[in-house]
What we know:
Blueprint: H1 2-23, H2 26-29, H3 41-66, H4 70-105, H5 108-114, H6 118-147, H7 152-164, E1 166-168, E2 171-173, H8 175-203, H9 211-237, H10 241-275, E3 283-286, E4 289-296, E5 300-305, E6 310-314, H11 315-320, E7 323-325, E8 333-341, H12 347-360, E9 371-377, E10 382-390, H13 396-413
Helix pairs in contact: 1-3, 1-4, 3-4, 4-6, 8-9, 9-10, 12-13
Amino acid sequence: TPSMQSVYLSIVVLIKASLIIVIALDRWWNPDEESPAATQPSAVSMMLYLRRFMLLLAVSSLIATLAGYTNLATYLIDNLIDSAVYVLLFMGLRAILLEMLAALTRSKFLRKQLGLRIISLQRIRVWCGGLITLALFVIGGLRLLLIWGVSRADLSRWIETAVTGFRVGSITVSLTDILLAICVFIAVMLVTRLFQRSLLHSILPQFTSNRSVQHSLSSGAGYVGVILAFVMFVAALGIQLESILIVAGALSVGIGFGLQNIVNNFVSGLILILERSIKVGDWVVVGENEGFVQEINFRATELETFTRASVIIPNADMLSNAVTNLTYHDKIARVEVPLQVAYGSDPDEVIAILKASAEESEDVLAHPSAFVLFTDFGADGLCFELRCYVRDGTERLSVASAIRLTILRRLTAADIEIPFPQRVVHMPSSPGAI
């Protein structure tokens, strides 16, 4: 009879809902501290949301049963069980596919055959893993919609509308156009990167050996590639440029305040590349930072200090602040070696020794020639300063060190003394005197 069938369904729903509530208890879902799941916050969060959703539906089915809505309770509890089964199946399939992908990317044979580096294989694994997860998410979502009563006709109509496009105002939004635009943008950016790499390593070295010129031309090609990729992305979406200009005009004030720093750095980077006042490989001093320019990017300039640390300086700061470029025109630099000798030494002999020590070095330029200045009568001796020029300013410290060693040997051979600091200490004549 219908009444007995209703009672039977109610009892079945109560049993199923009670079992689901027991399964969803915290003690079954909280992983141990030493388990791998405990070290993955994303997995713990997903399980927490899934547990809450199961509890909500189970409690709803219990309330519906007690209120007499047996068919609604049966619908909720049966679909919940079917959905849980499919979710577990898709999660297991995803784990298997990701493990197979990880095994392939760890394969030494595959790495040797394709000639890929480990970091390249890791990036491939991340991107392919994301695509697998997205595909399973879409397929699983469609299957869950069918489970919860969405007809295949409605689902097919929704998919067809998403693929062919639907209108939002005067703009047609199409999943096909979006995917095509993303693929076009990625393809143009990949071609741009490959072209930049070819310019730096194959094409430009045949025309010029100047590293800064090579970097400037390569960076210019990168700017052109980004602009071209954006234009083709917009064209693939089917959006009229007039619409973009209208929206850009409406948002220009807000975007101007929010992104003015980024735009300032971007334009400053263009000026640095075109003006070439600071080039890759230059030895510069910016505030307290001193080192060599490694790269001029869209937003900032990378400076490598002598301690091998990388300093990222915004391009706008490179233009607005004073920058000392020690290799702007050439790499010639002056070396200064101060010296003090004891009173009674022959100044002419000291000057001759200093000049000869500089001329002995192969790194010191003959033109302009080295010269010596008699700078002062010091408190402890006569003060001199040797000044000479070297071809490469980056070697001036080592050249100065070699010159000092030569000077010390020559002064020792000539019995010319380098004085110690002399101090006169007055002692009190009696213990009580001050």
